[in-house]
Amino acid sequence: MRAVILAGGRGERLAGEPKAFLPFSGVPLITLVVRLVRAALECRPIVITDCRGLELSDILRGEAMVFDTFGAGTREAVLMGLALAGRDGQPVLLMHGDVLCMPRILYDLPEDAAVVLYPPEAGKVSAHVVDGLVLGLGCGTWQYGGLLALSSDSVPVAIEALARGQGEYWEALRPLFALREIAAWPCSHEDLVDIDTAADSLRAHRDLWPRIKSYAH
Predict the structure, then answer these.
(1) N or C, where is the chain less crowded by C-beta within 10 Å?
(2) 28 exposed, middle or buried (CB, 10 Å; 0-12, 13-18, 19+)?
(3) Could you give the CA distance from residue 172 to residue 160 in angstroms, rounded to a whole number?
(4) 41 vs 94: CA distance, rounded Å
(5) Does the 2-215 domain belong in CATH 1.20.5.320?
(6) pTM of the complete model
(7) Are the beta carbons of 6 and 81 closer than 8 angstroms?
(8) Is 206 helix (H, G, I), strand (E, B) or coil?
(9) What counts of helices (H) and strands (E) characterise the chain?
């Protein structure tokens, strides 16, 4: 499985620094996300950003391939990432660069299923799929987002939908999905945190960091 990480968050709710550059226990957030993905999938991820791509390349030092859309937008970033990652006919994991999770969640990910953390009160991770094309419902307040896994046959379908669509990428993909829950696992903030606010970051430091810090260096 190939991996595409979207690293374009501006971090308005986190001191205004782009999320990718935010320090998390001594390393930039994007560095930790890349290392978690590498540990789980044993692949070199593709990181798509919309600004400061050269700086990200310098930070990651070859741990990931970095491409800059220069502000083209999320839909275009997803389109670029899927086009690059899907060239060799492999399944593709698409995830946001502010999602920290235990590598086992990604390692156990079937090639045609996605896992996402539901709001904390639901307390579980679920996978949804239809015809091999998978959508992960959003973490926190996002309607769509988090982790999205596409089978190899579905990648070109998604690329076509994105190329034809307008607006944000989840709107372009929405008609492809008639969701059906196929799996659920117990989960908590000790397993996965979507970092959107300072409170999320503190929760990740408290609950998740002790279990992922071995991947940070």
Answers:
(1) C
(2) buried
(3) 10
(4) 12
(5) no
(6) 0.83
(7) yes
(8) helix
(9) 8, 13
Q: 118: how many CB neighbours lie within 10 A of its CB? A: 18
CA distance 154 to 126: 20
Is the predicted pLDDT of residue 19 greater than 60, yes or no?
A: yes
What pLDDT score does 67 carry? 96
Q: How confident is the model at residue 153 (pLDDT cuts 50, 70, 90)?
A: confident
pLDDT in tens, 53-107: 999 999 999 999 999 999 888 888 989 999 999 888 888 888 889 888 888 877 7
Q: What angle do CA 198, 203, 204 make, to 5 degrees?
A: 95
Structure tokens at 43: 């692949």
Q: Taking each helix axis from N to C terminus, what angle separates 53-60 and 29-41, rounded to the nearest 10 degrees?
A: 60
Q: Rg of the chain over CA atoms, in angstroms?
A: 16
Provide long-range contacts, Cβ within 8 A and 24+ apart, for 130-137: 130/176, 130/177, 130/178, 130/179, 130/180, 133/157, 133/158, 133/176, 133/177, 135/173, 135/176, 135/177, 135/179, 137/179
Residue 207 is given by DSSP the state I
